[in-house]
Design a protein that fits this description.
homodimer; alpha/beta; Metallo-beta-lactamase, Chain A; 7-stranded mixed β-sheet; 18 strands
């Protein structure tokens, strides 16, 4: 099952020429889960060939413009392109007002259902549980209410050993039971233990998205041992005071978060416009947590690799 | 005096990869007048090196997202980049609400004055009159209230003939009067007619911006004989029915508007996403009005040439 994330934007509040505000497209089993939607996200999706028609869920972390200003444009384009399938949108309660007032004055009535789910900013909650994934909020520490998102794959079914079942002539109707771990009783009375006919499923993977936030241990437990951690790293550590004032994290601190919470891999992003190149931030995070990568726009990270 | 317009976006409602929603930067005497501000306008300004710090006025034609969704992001970036100078924003009355609610929930208090002027959508009015230009609204015919903008340069002062005034030893203190057309009385009593010492100023030029609109003769008089006409041309003429339903113009009709109103030159833009290349639209408009150009993003048109 696909479980990967493509970076659509990596800048913080003010974009620079080659960096767009925050957005990520998470592909889970060929459906897109869009995380944040900064201005220009629909253009970035065109650029990197992410089909917006395949977005089923959108998650908005908070109401600073660099995390949501592309949303009304994206929804409008989906509408104009004939979308009929619903979209579920998770975000701060006031986001609904912001969207409604703009569609009101543009006299737009969407042709699809926009199911809005207001996020409780005060405590972590499961906000989505479907066949592929469970999504929980992460309470972050920013200047305004802000939540991250933890995507944890569902435990998968066992995988059928095709060679073995064909050798034994197991009827296709039994496959579903085999995948659930049931033993196979052959017509001659022989019992074949499930473990002979199936292999263990892939371990469920977890992806945590943490932006924007002050370094704060309060959310560490929630993101413990994820396979991939995206954490903002707006500044280098020599700007710690500025990071504290603006409720952001330094690259060194992002490395610390990954190290302390036992992440397998770290991506840093949400870079301040002051950094024209990003080596300094990458080196700094790697000095604490070597398995760190930069959130390069257009790059896809397979979660668990 | 500079009087030119740079195209920042040329797509209609849904952007395509290489075309952004509508925005134009009009440079009048080294100050920028931004006309419409579709999503991604601030990124386009970075791309084409249009200094957003030099924007003094912003004009929003109507409240369809492809004409204003970049505005809150642009204002936020100006704020974060330390702007102190006021900006005057002209637009539909409800635009103020849309901006206010977003700054309210992001807890943003701009460090500069945003002077909002609500446009009367029902009749043409002078909305700005400064040392360089007079701006009037053009009442267009769209699905929701929409106004175009007519920028007419102020009549300039006469130009001093440097050689002649130096030859006669005219004191510098007289220059300002000479520019206003006053004759020169030399100390020996001789009267030098102003026409001997100065040359006629450049003729004031006019630029009309018409987007979005149905072809409708009601606005033709207002834009008569402009030096440069920008007119939307969302569709080719074989899509006339669709143009009528959606209150847009075809390329053939845009050519007709330029021909009938006596424009000197026409730029067409606001192209539907269905046109991957634009030759068809250009050829069609030129078949009626030969001096037509496409609104190519990044291209600057000097008004009056």
């Amino acid at each position: 099952m696909r479980f990967d994330v493509t970076i659509l934007g990596s800048s913080s509040a003010t974009p620079i020429y080659n960096r767009n505000p925050t957005a990520q497209a998470l592909n889970i089993n060929e459906r897109f889960y869009l995380i944040d939607c900064g201005e220009g996200t629909q253009q970035q999706m065109l650029r990197f060939d992410i089909k917006s028609s395949r977005i089923d869920y959108i998650f908005i972390s908070h109401l600073h413009g660099d995390h949501y200003l592309g949303l009304v444009g994206l929804l409008s384009s989906l509408h104009l392109n004939g979308r009929k399938k619903p979209i579920t949108l998770f975000g701060p309660a006031h986001l609904k007002e912001i969207i409604d007032i703009q569609f009101l004055y543009s006299e737009t009535t969407l042709h699809f259902d926009l199911v809005f789910v207001a996020i409780n900013p005060l405590q972590s909650e499961v906000i989505l549980d479907n066949q592929d994934v469970i999504v929980e909020t992460i309470v972050l520490d920013h200047r305004i209410a802000c939540t991250g998102f933890l995507f944890r794959q569902k435990k998968r079914l066992r995988k059928i050993n095709k060679e073995k079942v064909e050798e034994l002539g197991v009827p296709v109707e039994y496959y579903s039971a085999l995948k659930r771990g049931v033993d196979y009783f052959a017509v001659n009375g022989t019992v074949h233990p499930n473990s002979e006919l199936t292999n263990s499923p892939d371990e469920p993977m977890a992806y945590a998205y943490c932006s924007d936030t002050l370094y704060n241990e309060s959310y560490f437990e929630k993101i413990a041992k994820v396979d991939l951690l995206y954490h903002e790293a707006t500044f280098a550590h020599d700007m710690l005071e500025r990071a504290n004032t603006t409720h952001h994290t330094t690259a060194w601190q992002a490395g610390e978060v990954a190290r302390i919470t036992g992440a397998k891999k770290l991506i840093i992003g949400h870079f301040s416009a002051r950094y024209k190149t990003l080596n300094e931030l990458l080196d700094e995070a790697r000095s604490v947590f070597p398995n760190t990568e930069l959130a390069i726009e257009g790059k896809t990270f397979v979660i668990g690799t």
